[in-house]
Amino acid sequence: MHDSLPFLTADLPGVGGIIKVQPEDFLVEELPRYEASGAGTHTYAFIEKRGIGTREALNRIARAVGVLRKDIGAAGLKDARAVTRQWISIEHVEPQQVEQVSIPAVQILQTTRHTNKLKPGHLRGNRFVIRLRNPVLPLEEAARIAGEALQILTQKGVPNYFGPQRFGNRDDNHWLGRAVIRNDASEFMDLFLGRPMEGVESESIFHARSQYEQGHYEEALACWPRHLSDRCRALRAMAKTKGDKKRAYYGVDKHLKSLFISAYQSALFNQILAARMPHIDKLLLGDMAYKHENGACFRVDEPETEQPRCDRFEISPTGPLLGERTTRLTGPAGEIEDPILDAEGLSEGELRQMKRLGARGGRRPLRFQPRDIDVATGQDDLGGYLELHFELDPGCYATTLITEVTKDRSLEDSE
Question: Which residues are catalytic?
Answer without folding.
Answer: 79
